[in-house]
Design a protein that fits this description.
heterodimer, A: about 110 residues, seven-stranded mixed sheet, globular, B: six-stranded mixed sheet, four-stranded antiparallel sheet, 12 strands
Chain lengths: ~110, ~110
């Protein structure tokens, strides 16, 4: 157990819908990262938040957004869902940001868009 | 931009065989290097990491990796694999050029036959 929690574990929804994925980082970690894992794309970095502020952006679609709250938990919002959004979404956390940081991953949310 | 290559996409071994998984990266400066393992249906777990110092790094479960700067490589090794090592293995690199956001390789699927 890494100490990073994610809910829900599984999510089944329809195209066009909107969902929210939730992540709680390890105790004391200020940085949260979101990744999408699919068979064809591998593990793709989406976005990073550090202490409530957006820190870095990766291959995140405009239909997706995220935020980190004062208690440091983070939510990833996926809207206007398409079939191709079906994937595993992982959250990771690290103590801070930058060099010499190690990411610890949560169990993931498996999203299926029908 | 930094990139990570894992040349072996699928590896099949018998128990007690030796394992070496290749990882090469493209960034020329100081790097932090990681190997993660993902057991079937589970999240990514850190196997080992290299930040500085001794280029031969020992990790959990008998794994080790060697950083060879001149070859831009960080290969993962285990002298004798077990059936329980069946998993997906990911190499990751973070570097100043990538804002210290880890870039992951596409992964190597290892199947160990009992």
């Amino acid at each position: 157990d890494s100490g990073v929690t994610q809910t829900p574990k599984h999510l089944i929804t329809a195209t066009g819908q909107r969902v929210t994925l939730r992540c709680s980082p390890r105790s004391g970690d200020l940085s949260v990262y979101w990744y999408q894992q699919s068979l064809d794309q591998g593990l793709q970095f989406l976005i990073q938040y550090y202490n409530g502020e957006e820190r870095a952006k990766g291959n995140i679609l405009e239909r997706f957004s995220a935020q980190q709250f004062p208690d440091l938990h983070s939510e990833l919002n996926l809207s206007s869902l398409e079939l191709g959004d079906s994937a595993l979404y992982f959250c990771a956390s690290s103590a801070r940001t930058g060099e010499f940081e190690t990411q610890y991953f949560g169990p993931g949310t498996r999203l299926l868009v029908l | 931009a930094q990139s990570v290559s894992q040349h072996n996409h699928h590896v099949i071994l018998s128990e007690a065989a030796s394992l070496e998984l290749g990882c090469n990266y493209s960034y020329g400066g100081t790097v932090n290097l990681f190997w993660y393992v993902q057991y079937p249906g589970q999240h990514l777990q850190l196997l080992l990491k290299y930040f500085s110092g001794d280029p031969l790094v020992k990790g959990i479960k008998g794994f080790e990796a060697e950083f060879i700067k001149s070859k831009f490589s960080f290969n993962l090794r285990k002298p004798s694999v077990q059936w329980s090592d069946t998993a997906e293995y990911f190499c990751a690199v973070n570097a100043p050029g990538g804002s210290y956001i880890p870039t992951f390789g596409r992964g190597t699927s290892l199947i160990v036959h009992p």
